[in-house]
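Please fill in the sequence for the structure shown.

STRUCTURE ENCODING:
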C-alpha cells in the first residue's frame, strides 16, 4: 500500500520567457498544461494549486495564493503547505505536459522504500539534473526547512530543498520535460501529436 500523499502545484509565475502569457493555461493537445499535471495526480488525497484561480477540468482542486502573489516557488510551497495534511507531499511544476500517474507512483514508492531518514525522492532528468518541482517530500521536512529559511518570498527553491536527505529517481520516460519557452511548447505539441 502506498503512503497517502497530497500534491502542491506552484502556478503563480509570471511566464516572463513567454512574454507574460498565463503558461499553465496553454494547450498541449486537448488539455491545458495545468490540467495535464492535475490528471497525473488523481491518486492524491488533496491537490493544492498555488496561483490565480483558472478554469480546470479537474474537480476538488483547492486554490490558494503565495504571499506576496508572484513571490516565487518557495513562497508557493509555503502557501500550499498551509493546506496539506498528508505525511508526504509531492511538488509538481504546472508546466510538465508529460507527467503521468506512473511517475507520481514511482516517486511516492521511492520515498516509501528509502525509509524514514530520507526526506525527498527527486526526479532526475536525462541530463542528470535534479528536478525539485517533480519530487516527493516528507511534509515535516519541508516545514522544518521553511522555518530555518525565514521569509520565503523571492527565495530560490534549492535553498529550501537542497539540504534535505534524498534519493534520486531516474526519469525513464522524459516526463520532466517542461515548457519554459515558445520553442519548448511547440516541441511538446509535436511530441504529443506523435
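FILLED IN BY: designer on duty
SEQUENCE:
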Amino acid at each position: 500500500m502506498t503512503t497517502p500523499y497530497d500534491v502542491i502545484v506552484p502556478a503563480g509565475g509570471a511566464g516572463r520567457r513567454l512574454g507574460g502569457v498565463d503558461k499553465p493555461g496553454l494547450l498541449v493537445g486537448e488539455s491545458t498544461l495545468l490540467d495535464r499535471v492535475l490528471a497525473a495526480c488523481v491518486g492524491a488525497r488533496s491537490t493544492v494549486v498555488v496561483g490565480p484561480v483558472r478554469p480546470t477540468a479537474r474537480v476538488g482542486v483547492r486554490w490558494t495564493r503565495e504571499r506576496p502573489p508572484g513571490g516565487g516557488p518557495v513562497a508557493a510551497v509555503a502557501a500550499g503547505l498551509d493546506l496539506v495534511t498528508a505525511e508526504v507531499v509531492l511538488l509538481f511544476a504546472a508546466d510538465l505536459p508529460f507527467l503521468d500517474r506512473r511517475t507520481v507512483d514511482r516517486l511516492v514508492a521511492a520515498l516509501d522504500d528509502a525509509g524514514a531518514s530520507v526526506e525527498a525522492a527527486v526526479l532526475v532528468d536525462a541530463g542528470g539534473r535534479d528536478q525539485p518541482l517533480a519530487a516527493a517530500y516528507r511534509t515535516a521536512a519541508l516545514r522544518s526547512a521553511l522555518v530555518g529559511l525565514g521569509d520565503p518570498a523571492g527565495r530560490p527553491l534549492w535553498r529550501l530543498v537542497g539540504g534535505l536527505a534524498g534519493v534520486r529517481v531516474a526519469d525513464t520516460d522524459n516526463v520532466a520535460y517542461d515548457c519554459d519557452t515558445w520553442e519548448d511548447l511547440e516541441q511538446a505539441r509535436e511530441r504529443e501529436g506523435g
